[in-house]
Design a protein that fits this description.
The complex is a heterotetramer, with 2 copies of chain A and 2 copies of chain B. By secondary structure, chain A is mainly alpha-helical. Chain A is 68% helix and 2% strand. Chain A is built from 12 helices and 2 strands. Chain A has a two-stranded antiparallel ribbon. Chain B is mainly alpha-helical. Chain B has a single domain, classed as Up-down Bundle (Ferritin). Helix content of chain B is 62%, strand content 0%. Chain B contains 10 helices and no strands. In chain B, helix 4 crosses helix 6. Chain B is globular and about 55 Å long. The chains are: A mainly alpha, B mainly alpha. The interface between A and B is large, with 51 and 51 residues. Chains B, C: Pfam families: PaaA_PaaC. Chains B, C: This is Ring-1,2-phenylacetyl-CoA epoxidase subunit PaaC. Chains B, C: InterPro entries: Aromatic_CoA_ox/epox, Ferritin-like, Ferritin-like_SF, PaaA_PaaC, PaaC.
């Protein structure tokens, strides 16, 4: 109770909880779930964009794309490290992913079907992710908040790169413009769903708010995203696929249409177009790599034994 | 085409083809750190290719650009070593349970970067100042590639019985392709004659030392050479380059007038 | 484009995509008789595709030709079922030791040809006489495809424990893709309305009977459907079609003015 | 000795030996070696051309190519059957191929590098094969001679198709013409080597001639092939890559340059550009297919047991 009081006080004062600090079990569990889910999202998120590396239409775009996918791997890596400060192992987290127990962002269960998708994912998917993540830079758990500061910085860079790639395409041939429009048509609604169910239906929000793990509500973030994105779409010259999308003078916000939550939940529950494939790709990579990890471990042990023999 | 342009294209083709291959691991590596490391190697190689193609485009003049050279040249025009276009699988069936064998990737990166540390080092003295500058930059990168692949070569060779057998199989498979390094090509001799290029055969003893030293540490046996010497750098490739290029160039060629 | 042309393209795309996939076994089959059998299936499908594209070209007029339709249309213009573009591997990792799984090939050929015996049979009454003629010819071919794949389905299902597990995994993987057969598409409804096409949903009970009967004999369990219904026939594909087409079309597109 | 005399008499009378007839062990062994080697060549020969099926530049050419590769599979299948009449099993023959003990035609150890190679293989490689094989239609062993009649008929068809494909390309764009010339440059000398070493160095010839297994000498066949091919090359409009190639009025034949026998023997001995790859592709296909063959066998046994149970 004394520890609890100290913890609560720190939270209320907007202070940071560090790994060595006492924390309630539910707080620890919630963080492990959230951070590992985020790490998994980065790793699985390498796949849809990685799908286009071999076909990138210029060497410059190829380099940008590889660097971006590499950054996602890096995010995964240090988010796993942040989770490990809470006393879990990466191996256990990966097991949870591979067995289907742990979730990752549902947006990566949709396919990338043309080159513009690479730009759109940067602009809209990363854009939505940043909206979700910027508040987490002030999250109460120190290692997570520091990881998020770095992640957000890099994601913002990716978002600008994605938008720039689309701008270039929109100045190009008719086919290029059509690709961008087709891409935005496919991703727009899915990005709006990324902010999660409406506040009324969101189970974890209240406690998360209390603990400073979640800081802004789903609906508020979604609105903020839409308000920021509509003008960008205009500059780009594409049409967002929502006939109900219009400025509401009174609210000072854009109104928007109904999100298809059935589709969202179908995908979250494992039945999107690519769920099985994404997961099995990860499992295959992990299984195929077993002998490599075994070898590294065996070699390290041999090295150690040799060093001990020499010392003896 | 000038001797210098041809030589730059040979170096650029090497870089782009191996860069393309290494990137295939992105999202599929044995551990996330290796996804990142190989993406990094790939990124360096694509970066080198860009500088080399850009310089080749300057030398060639006309409407040549880095992307025209990378995306709109056909298979027999590519001058990369055959070694670099092979898929990531060992010829030795039985070990390869999967179509992507990390041992093959590591051995190839090792054999090639052991050569390129020597090539880039020497090319710092190239009479082509741009190439000398590219060499200085590339040397730093390839030193890391050599360290990375050498470390893994040793881990795999001196790891488990399985990893030893796999990496030995990859070595047996790939080593014959390195004979191509030491053969003459008109492109290289012309570039050596003008002081732009380096004589690769003159680097052989140093390469042997680098390789033999690492193989000894990895407890691997260097296979005796017998047989066929590939001629990729002369434009005569394996059946694999066609597939690699048709995938790599597909989008660019579907939209020949587009800017990306 | 006319409703008839669109409908012919849907049928042609199905045939060419599955023909392309089946030919991938040529030289790599489990026993030489199967290399020959699958080449034969592929040949029939390519033949069907040719007749269908030719007829589509007639309906479309202008400079359309069978090869322009097969080689110079982009991914979203293809109207094949998503099922047919998938690679030959099962989603269930663990069984698939290789990247080509014969069980997946057999299950797909079975599920598709069980549909097409019904479709071609009905299309013999198509108001488009050319299509009716193509249907009569294709029906004979697809009856053989069904027999071939059904026989193997039973051999694999009622074979060893391993083959049973593999083919059940392939079935679990592929069955959800068959839901696409029963959904409406504007292309199909338009063709049904004019009497050119057949209502595929009306064939569902017969298909179920064909499938359930074979699965029972093969001691396989039909998985309950849940989840995503693919939309390949509406032009919304998986990530696999792009790679298939970029390979298939690479040479033709590299030489747009050539005659072969 | 009586049997031997009868056998010799049959051979001398140009009669056919059938499976149930007595035959000398060396005759049987020579035939098994030759027929299985031929069967293996058909199977391995599916690979270089098969390499272009997925990229055939028109549907018509794709269909022709698939049909051709399928025919090669068919040839392999009935040549294995012909060999089986001599008391060996296909499994044993395949083992010999996969272990590297048995040989196959060395020509398939070269890569197919452009689309014209498909036509050139038809025209030159199949053309050379036909020259070698036509005399075998009169071979003393019945099943082999009958198999060769069918093989030669189909191969002649393939040869005409290959030549026709090249003719069309030579009427096409400059790139197409360049492909054909490049292809012929790569294959010409290798095809001449297909007839085997000069008669002086050919170990098996004499006995083979005696037995009616081999009927025309290597050098004679090679000359016949060259004499037939040069006019076809002229019609095609390509240059055969041999500066010494010219009509010798006196001999009534074309003279030709030196074949590189070192390269030939290097490849025959396993060190050509594709030897390892071709063999490992076959081994992989065989190993990957083990579970399929096992299943077929297991199912057949189950069927049999069920039938026996019902009968009992």
């Amino acid at each position: 109770p004394e520890l609890m009081a100290k913890f609560d006080a720190r939270i209320d004062a907007d202070g940071r909880i560090e790994p060595q600090d006492w924390m309630p079990d539910a707080y620890r569990k919630t963080l492990v779930r959230q951070i590992s889910q985020h790490a998994h999202s980065e790793i699985v998120g390498m796949l849809p964009e990685g799908n286009w590396i071999s076909r990138a239409p210029s060497l410059k775009r190829k380099a940008i794309l590889i660097a971006k996918v590499q950054d996602e791997g890096g995010h995964g890596q240090y988010l796993y490290s942040a989770a490990e400060t809470l006393g879990v192992s990466r191996a256990d987290l990966l097991d949870a992913l591979h067995s289907g127990k742990a979730k990752y962002s549902s947006i990566f269960n949709y396919p990338t079907l043309n080159w513009a998708d690479v730009g759109t994912i940067g602009w809209l998917v990363d854009g939505a992710a940043i909206m979700n993540q910027v508040p987490l830079c002030r999250c109460s758990y120190g290692p997570y908040s520091r990881a998020m500061i770095r992640v957000c910085k890099e994601e913002s860079f990716h978002q600008r790169q994605g938008y720039e790639a689309l701008l270039v395409m929109m100045r190009g041939t008719d086919e290029q413009k059509a690709m961008v429009q087709d891409s935005v048509n496919r991703w727009w609604w899915k990005c709006l769903a990324m902010f999660g169910p409406p506040d009324a239906d969101s189970p974890h929000s209240a406690q998360g708010m209390r603990w400073g793990i979640k800081r802004v509500s789903n609906d508020d973030l979604r609105q903020k995203f839409i308000d920021a994105t509509v003008p960008q779409a205009k500059v780009l010259g594409i049409t967002l696929p929502d006939p109900d999308l219009k400025w509401n003078e009174e609210r000072g916000h854009y109104d928007y249409g109904q999100i298809d939550w059935d589709e969202f939940w179908t995908t979250v529950n494992g039945n999107g177009p690519c769920n099985k494939e994404r997961l099995s790709t990860r499992v295959k990579a992990h299984n195929d790599g077993q002998w490599v990890r075994d070898a590294a471990l065996a070699h390290a042990r041999k090295q150690q034994q040799r060093a001990m023999k020499e010392a003896a | 085409m000038s001797a210098t342009a041809n030589y730059l294209l040979h170096l650029a083709d090497n870089a782009v083809v191996l860069g393309q291959r290494n990137a295939e691991w992105c999202g599929h590596g044995p551990v996330i750190e290796e996804d990142i490391a190989l993406a990094n190697v790939s990124l360096d190689l694509i970066g080198q290719a860009r500088l080399l193609y850009q310089q080749a485009a300057v030398v060639l003049g006309g409407d040549a650009t880095e992307d025209k050279l990378a995306y709109f040249r056909d298979e027999p025009e590519f001058r990369n070593y055959t070694l670099l276009e092979l898929p990531h699988r060992s010829a030795l069936v039985g070990y390869a349970k999967s179509d992507m064998d990390y041992g093959t990737t590591i051995v190839r990166n090792f054999l090639y970067s052991a050569l390129m540390v020597l090539v880039w080092e020497a090319l710092q003295q190239s009479k082509d100042e741009q190439l000398a500058a590219i060499a200085a930059k590339s040397l730093k990168e390839v030193r890391y590639h050599l360290r990375h692949s050498r470390d893994w070569l040793i881990r795999l060779g001196d790891g488990t019985d399985e990893s030893h057998a796999r990496v030995q199989a990859a070595l047996d498979h790939l080593m014959p392709y390195t004979e191509e390094f030491w053969t003459d090509s008109s492109i290289e001799s012309a570039a050596v004659a003008t002081g732009v290029g380096v004589s690769v055969p003159s680097l052989r003893a140093q390469w042997d030392a680098l390789v033999n030293d690492a193989l000894a540490e990895a407890t691997l046996v260097r296979p005796a050479f017998e047989g066929y010497i590939t001629e990729g750098k002369q434009g005569l490739h394996s059946e694999h380059l066609g597939f690699l290029l048709s995938e790599m160039q597909s989008l660019a060629r579907a939209h020949p007038n587009a800017t990306w």
